[in-house]
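ARCHIVE CARD
Drawer: 12
Card no.: 0347
Subject: one protein chain, sequence and derived structure
Cross-reference: see card 0346
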Amino acid sequence: MPFAIATVSLGDLSIGEEGLVLGNFRVLRDAAAAGRACTPLSGKKLGLLCEDETTPEAVAFRCAAIGLGAHVAHAGASL
């Protein structure tokens, strides 16, 4: 059974959540601008649970997670 993906905008967040998201954005942006690696997910292991790991969404998730330092494993939806 497919999962519904909800979209979230900054307007859906509380003031505290919005500040956290924007603060993290600034840290990542500033590190990239300075040419420094920023890997807040270093040492973390994430699972990608989907049938097809080649969909654009799955590829984007994997690339973003790896770029932030995580290890990503794929598990098919048939599990």
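Annotation on reverse: The chain has a mean pLDDT of 88. The radius of gyration is 15 Å.
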